[in-house]
Amino acid sequence: MIQKPRGTFDILPSDTPVWQFIEKTARDTAANFGYGEIRTPTFEATELFQRGVGDTTDVVQKEMYSFTDRENRSFTLRPEGTASVARALVENGKCSDTLPLKLYYMINCFRYEKPQAGRSREFYQFGVEMYGAADAAADADVIALGSEIISKLGIKDVSLHINSIGCPDCRPKYRQALYDYFKAHEDELCDTCKQRLETNPLRILDCKSPICSAIGKDAPKSIDHLCEGCADHMDKLKNHLDEMGIEYEIDTNIVRGLDYYTRTVFEFICTAIGAQSTVCGGGRYDGLMKQIGGPQMPGIGFAMGITRLILAMEASKAMPETKHEPLLYIAPMGAAAQCKAAGIVAKLRREGVYAEYDLVARSLKAQMKYADKINAKYTLIIGDNEIENGKAILKNMQESSQVEVDFTDMAALCEAMK
């Protein structure tokens, strides 16, 4: 038997109502904040992610699914959404539109990682991007959107963690401070972090190795090396969050995994779902647009992993009621009755009524068992006599009551099922 690739999963009809609930909640909330949907290709030129995400990141070095096409061009299945959105805005000339540009997306992404709970090789994200607003007020507004979605999904035990990783003006000094600190511990670092020490020591802070994590706890903190502009930006963000009533804590361990981040970085963490506890992560990326060939334009956004949100909703006992049960099941007896049932069901469905009828030639007894199994509220049995008279017995399956109805009159039939 051919099986799905490792690290991917099927979303079955029994599961999709929860996904649809999350997607609708996220879409509706984003629209209420003034965001419009953008859809980008599933694969892009590999160079986009090399330049946008960063050559020294694990995503580019270890996790991308890249391939060469028949014309020897390198393409990559998108590992994240932000770089694609920035490319789309530049390529389609949207950077000169009225600012800020506010967009959201619902996408699948691909990274070659070790599959575990809340982490897969194909994963699904809801994300937002705001371009053209450099002020910390934009940071707070984006964070407020993430907070609102999480609240509407009923997720509990969530805390907002924020940090600042500086800008191109103050980052070099911080980078040097990190280099000096980790250089003294070089012999203790894992092999990957020994390489990171020379290319990007900030990445060491993101290492999952217990030894490197322990060493990193005493490393210099980015928030202690901010320039005046970055420090003022952070203070203003905190003031806005306070005014909005959004609680937060400063977490100097947040550095984010991609090179394009500057200044504000943040995560919403749900302690109830274990190791993969981040349900929303984002930050500011003021240099990304220019980095991929566009104009200098500040940006900020976040992404939410759908499977993580589902885990958090389960832990919070906030799973929505997702049953979709037919109002009416028609049990036909014979070919003529089945044809008549088809016509009745078609008319009901046009009126927005969920109705079913037998399609697999079950016996009447089997049909009634099936109607009970799918939790049909009403059943209608139609045979030759019923067709001749235009009337049949409508049975309420929940109350075990019944009434004779004229099934040729759709208004009367619908009224009887209220």
Write up what this structure looks like.
By secondary structure, the chain is an alpha+beta fold. It folds into 2 domains: 16-170 and 226-315, Bira Bifunctional Protein, Domain 2 (BirA Bifunctional Protein, domain 2); 328-416, 3-Layer(aba) Sandwich (Rossmann fold). 37% of the residues lie in helices and 22% in strands. It has helices at 16-32, 46-52, 58-63, 82-91, 136-152, 171-183, 191-199, 210-216, 228-244, 288-291, 306-315, 335-350, 364-373, 384-389, 410-416; strands at residues 36-37, 43-45, 65-68, 74-77, 101-110, 122-131, 158-164, 249-250, 262-270, 278-284, 299-305, 328-332, 355-357, 378-382, 391-396, 401-406. The strands form 3 sheets. The chain has an 8-stranded mixed sheet. Strands 13-12-14-15-16 form a 5-stranded mixed sheet, with helices on both faces. Strands 2-4-3 form a 3-stranded antiparallel sheet. Helix 1 runs antiparallel to helix 5 (136-152) and helix 5 packs parallel to helix 9. The mean pLDDT is 92.
Keywords for this structure?
single chain; 418 residues; alpha+beta; BirA Bifunctional Protein, domain 2; Rossmann fold; 37% helix
Question: How do the helices and strands line up, and which of them pair or pack?
Answer:
Layout: H1 16-32, E1 36-37, E2 43-45, H2 46-52, H3 58-63, E3 65-68, E4 74-77, H4 82-91, E5 101-110, E6 122-131, H5 136-152, E7 158-164, H6 171-183, H7 191-199, H8 210-216, H9 228-244, E8 249-250, E9 262-270, E10 278-284, H10 288-291, E11 299-305, H11 306-315, E12 328-332, H12 335-350, E13 355-357, H13 364-373, E14 378-382, H14 384-389, E15 391-396, E16 401-406, H15 410-416
Parallel strand pairs: 1-5, 7-8, 12-13, 12-14
Antiparallel strand pairs: 2-4, 3-4, 5-6, 6-11, 7-9, 9-10, 10-11, 14-15, 15-16
Helix pairs in contact: 1-5, 5-9
